[in-house]
Amino acid sequence: MFKPTESFAHELDANDPLKDYKHEFYISDDHIYLDGNSLGLMPKRAEQSLQDVMNAWKHEAIGGWMNGEHPWFYLSETLGDRIAPLVGGKPEEVMVTGSTTTNLHQLVSTFYQPKGERTKILADELNFPSDIYALQSQLRLHGYDPDEHLIQVESRDGRTIDEDDVIEAMTNDVALIVLPTVLYRSGQLLNVRKLTEAAHARGILIGFDGCHSVGAIPHHFHEDGVDFAYWCHYKYVNSGPGGVAGLFVHDNHFDRTPGLTGWFGSDKDKQFDMEHTFTKAQDAGAFQIGTPHVFSTAPLIGSLDLFEEAGIEALRAKSLQATAYFMYLVEQELSDFGFTIGNPREDERRGGHICLEHEAAASICKALKDHDITPDFRAPNVIRLAPVAFYVSYHDIYRAVHILKDIMTNETYKQYQNERDVIA
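Structure for Kynureninase, as requested:
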């Protein structure tokens, strides 16, 4: 299917229906950016939408809450409607609000209701640390010892989690399950539907962290019956550093009162009655807490224009082909240098990045940066490389592999200390 030649890379680019979108982002022609799974590049339209909202503050002052092209009072709901197709939720089930960890605290405080023997939370040992910290915190708030009440499914290979092992751990003492859609190191995509159906068959609620998949992989959270989900927008959705996050709550649970209530979770028509009795919104809006961070939300307005034009299915199709091509070139060109591909090979199990393992991973990443390539290091030995469909071309992938080959052939990576910087 693939060929190792540079002309073939150009051929793939010529036939890429998304090839023109790279010009929508700020990046120099020579730079190869492969870290969009940590922080997406700035879309020019996101810059403009942020400026538009700033101009509303400039010209409307407090009137910007209800006036202008993007009234701030309804901004979280409006953008939730637009995010919904990316996660497979109904518009009323999706909200742009909070941060990833704040939203996780909100959702766990709502859905974790220990009763009788069901007191434990089930997670996995490869999850992102912030999720585990939050789950430990929630257990302590209920008076439970996380060492006993947080179950973390072990990995068989240190890279992936077997869904059958998760299902086996769904015992009668589990009250709640929280898992990632995609494992942040290896890029493994979990089978959300299989896990959700298994949890519900055992009377357990289940939620998912979509930080490493939303914007790269289509989801079907409503159809799959997921109870809740949460994610950031600053990776594949390109909302900027610290951009406001998102959450999904299945409409089966709209009768629940959020565990953490706040003014912006109010029914919009009642919010300014200023009563001390909380009248919650009748949809996912109830799970908001505080006033929207308007300027951290505004870039999404422009970024989502790109998703609506390109379509998440087309983005996923290119992502799958790009990661497959990347792995092909790694095997063709780098087989003599001690690299191991640590991500799943199957399309249905692979997220948006590839995972290269090497004992000198940290120093190799530093060498790549000095060659105008931005990778991502994860301890102890992982180089994550994300060929984001919007702005990484097939020729970029070809160049990246050949530059990496030169670094290994000439052993220039040995000039760098094999330890992470303060930020990896």
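DSSP finds 14 helices and 13 strands in the chain.
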